């Protein structure tokens, strides 16, 4: 379907699909079998904050939060991106040191769970995790304050295994303005342009989630590599400042990148009361605008309050496969959404 589909046409098509009135390629594979065979990649969670704080033993099932290893295994997750995040404005000059502490927590998490976890720095690590029935862990940084605008620091984080960086959180830094800047939003600084180019060269995925529109648009037009939006939703369906416009979705597709739908309830529904079905609605809207090859998963588990009904924690991912089959998607397309699209981008960018 073309990139310029109207919202009305989108809703009509979704309704017909759900009623079974469109001829679709229904794969006879059961949802459970398809999910078990698929590579499933989640582009964003904030669980590492709890690991660093010592409030989450990720190796055991926890009563609180969204993610631990038993629930990731139950959900069939192949690769989980763990974001390093701190409230950067409170840290001031300590952001690099605190980020290094989070990198240490990430490595200690791996060392404590060698029977289950491997560190993914290239695409073959994710494929190996699938083959060995393990979980690949991708390390990312949410907000580039720790780089201090220095390409040398960026290169060191790459050596430490960081493979994705979102350029801002909600506020202004040396690189660009975040989405929380409400007046006079600016695009990339010269430092920001140079760092994006160096990320392209090194093989670090550039993440435009949280960037103010001028910066996001600039990244999308200067990048030499596919771009990721790690945890977003459709602005046309829910008018939240963190959600993407149709033009941004089209530009992400033009770079060969992937937009990853989040489970944050306030991004999915204007009243903050969200469900699995609404999550899939946003996914289908992304597909209609950007195409099936440019959509992925980006939960933001352990990074939000409230509940998206039906997706209460990481054990619930099989429900997505079930609904997509019910709505008439082929096994091939479902596998692209669940992880193959992100795996492709990870291979193209990181190797």
Characterize the structure shown:
By secondary structure, this protein is of the alpha/beta class. The chain has one domain (7-350): Alpha-Beta Barrel (TIM Barrel), CATH 3.20.20. It has 15 helices and eleven strands. It has helices at 7-19, 31-37, 48-53, 69-74, 88-91, 95-112, 123-131, 151-159, 190-202, 213-222, 246-255, 265-268, 276-290, 318-326, 331-350; strands spanning 41-42, 79-84, 117-119, 135-142, 162-166, 205-207, 228-232, 258-261, 274-275, 295-297, 308-309. Strands 1, 2, 3, 4, 5 and 6 form a six-stranded parallel beta sheet that branches. Helix 2 (31-37) crosses helix 14 (318-326), helix 8 runs parallel beside helix 9 (190-202) and helix 10 (213-222) runs parallel beside helix 11. The protein is globular and about 50 Å long. The protein starts with 6 loop residues before the first helix and ends with a helix. The model is unreliable at 1-28 (pLDDT under 50).
The gist of it:
By secondary structure, this protein is α/β, with parallel strands linked by helices. The protein is built from 15 helices and eleven strands.
Descriptive keywords:
TIM Barrel, alpha/beta, 351 residues, three-stranded parallel sheet, six-stranded parallel sheet, disordered N terminus
Radius of gyration over C-alpha positions, nearest whole angstrom:
19 Å
Number of domains: 1
Query: Strand share of the residues?
Result: 5-15%
Q: Helices and strands, in N-to-C order?
A: HHEHHEHHEHEHEHEHEHEHEHEEHH
Decide which structural class fits the backbone.
alpha/beta
Query: So what's the overall shape?
Result: globular
Sheet with most strands: 6 strands, parallel
Q: Could you give the distance between the termini?
A: 30 Å
Helical proportion, percent range: 40-55%
Mean pLDDT: 91
The beta-strand count equals: 11
pLDDT < 50 runs, ≥5 residues: 1-28
CATH class: Alpha Beta
Separate helix tally = 15
Q: Assign the CATH topology.
A: TIM Barrel
CATH-level-4 superfamily name = Metal-dependent hydrolases
